[in-house]
Structures are given as C-alpha cells and as structure tokens.
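Regression report. Comparing outputs from two consecutive submissions.

Submission 1:
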Amino acid sequence: MKYFLKKTGEKIEIGDKITITNEVQTPFGMGTSTVKVTVTEEIVPKLIAHGIIEEDSISLSNLVAKVGVRMDLDEDEAEGFMSLLWERAPGTAMTFLLKEASIILNKNKKLGNNVWFISNLDGSIDFMSITKIKNYKTVSVFATKEDAYRAKEALIELFEELYGNK
C-alpha cells in the first residue's frame, strides 16, 4: 500500500523517516514540538488516525468502486459495468475513472488559473487556463502536475492498452 503526507502529498513508504511538527502550549507561551518518526506497519494506523498521512485511494479498484457508488451499484456490478464499458467504449470508461481520480485528488485543494489535464486523444499531460473550461462534468482537471501523474500512474495499464506505450 502507498501512503502520502496529507499536507504536501509527498509519497511515503514503510521505512521512510518523516518529521512531525506541532504547536504546543508551554509555560512560556506557544512553542513548536518536532519529532522524527520512522514509518512502520505498527505506527501507520496512528499516523492515519491523526491525519498526518493518508492511504493512496487512487488505484484502479478504488476508482471502479467510486464509479459504482456514484451509479448506485454494488462492487460486483460496478466491476461488470466498467468491464463492459471498457470493451464497448474505452474512452468513456477512461473518462469516468479520470473524473473520479480528479475528484479525490482535488479534494481540499483550490484550483489556480492554470490546471492540468490528461488528454483523451493521446494520454499526454498538459495544462490549460481554467477559463477555457465550459463544463466540468466531462473534464477531469488536476490542481498540480504531480496529481495528474498520480492519476495516470494508477491507470497506466489502461493507458497503455488504449494509447500504446506513451
């Protein structure tokens, strides 16, 4: 399982060392407490519970499940639906999955004047002005280039099948 620092989005793996900084009340006023922690299997649940790291929810299975929830389908129905959609209209299936990825990755982020998107023509990542978007229902935009790459990485097998090795 992949983990990410909640504040920065930096990728974290088991064995990595992270620095946790908190403001604390001291007898002399507010102070800063800094602790270096090695990420282990035992400490991960505590770090997640305290909102320091989060699990990577950008995986193909999670995105298919999110599409299923949005369409009021159970897990098996969602997998069947997306599988059939991929056979009949792979571009549409990719659009559904990218839309869910953008919703997850853009949560708690403010979109700037320029946003990143993944092209439906060739799978390339590029940026555009947010003023050019007329309808957000069909466009999957990302606040940062890193988020667009995370979404593409999660769906890389589908991208390779749809667009080749690009």
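Submission 2:
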Amino acid sequence: MYNSSQMLIEAKRNKEVGCIIGHFFLCYYALFHAMQSLLFLNPNLDSEKVLDLSHNEVKKYFEDFYCKGNNSIMPPEIIDIFVVLKEYRELYSYTMPFNNPQNVMIEMEHLEYYITLCFQLLSLKSFIIYKIEPGTIAFDNNVKEYFENCCYKRDPISQKLIRDEADKYFWWQFEEYGADFFPYALGIEADMDEYGGYDSHILEELGFKECGTIRINAFRFVYSVIH
C-alpha cells in the first residue's frame, strides 16, 4: 500500500517537473501495487506466490476475484485503466516516441480514485482478518523464513539479504513478545514511526532532497483514504 502511494505521489511530482517517462512508469506501478496488495490478503491465494505472479496474472486474478458479475465489489473499469497504463508504460520503456501522441494521456483523478478503492478494500479485509483470527502469533523460524522469502531480495553479487533497517527492531519485538495481525487503520501510527524513519539523513547526503516530503505526502494519502 505504501509502495503504491509513494509511486502515485512521485508520478505527480514527475509530471510537475516534466519527467514524462518516469510519470508513465510510476502511474502504472502505483495501480499495479495497489491491485497486487489485495491479492496478498486473498485467502484463496498463497501470498508467497503472489510476488511471483506475472503482470497479466495479477490482472487476471484481480478481475476474477473483484470485478466479475453485476454486483462486483470493484468497478470493471479498473481493469481498463490497468491495461491502458501498462501499454503506456511499455511504450515509453521500449519504443519511446520522439513526440508524445495526443491520445496518450492519464487522468490523474481517475487513477487516484481507483487506487483509493483498492486501499479502502484492503483496509476492510485487514479488519475482517483481525476479527476472524485475533490473538498473538508466537515467534517461529518458519514465520521468519516465510517473511524473508516474501519481503526481501538478495544482493546479486554477495547473495546476502537486502534488509530494511526497521526490521531489526521488528524481529527483536517479535522474538520477545510475539506479534498480532493489526488492521491497517489501527496500526498506522506505528507505520508512521517506521516509514522513512531510518534513512532520511542517508538519502539527503545522496542528493534525494525531496524524499522526506514525498514520503510524508504518501503517508498522508494513505491516512486520508483509510481513516
């Protein structure tokens, strides 16, 4: 969810400064990650395998679970905009035109609307899971291995896991006290402390001067949508 939100904010910023390739790339992935996030909490899918789904498979499963029938929970038009954004992203990634075709454009209000729907449904699903399976999960190496397989990548040279600094404290807490599945809307204050709370000084030294502001705006967007 935060990945999608930050990509949406960065897509808007790219448009403001005239970075058209980055704009189309980020618009597509903002929607892609919003849709994929719902598949992670789908009880009919193994969340570990969701990461390995192709883009067309994400589209297929999302459409099958959320957009079919007269009373579908999501409007079928979200699939149309997904297909369009995918084509625009590929156009500018592989066969960039010298001049932008007149019909290649994105209504940011529409994109933001569909991402909002995904976040709200995701928040609702997290409440449902919380009500069905309350209680604390005890630390288990199998849980940690599952988490690492889902959330970490390996450095292609050293083969070491590329870890998030925030996870050091998370795993310490998990081993000491266990963990529970908390609805996103109730756990958002903890997210605020962790999201960008460890690397702002490093990014500033590297020249990412606006990263802190972008993250704040991304967090605000999530907060406004699910609260």
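Expected: both submissions complete independently.
Actual: both completed, but the second showed a warning that disappeared on reload.
Relevant detail on submission 2: The beta strands are 136-137, 153-154, 161-162, 179-180.
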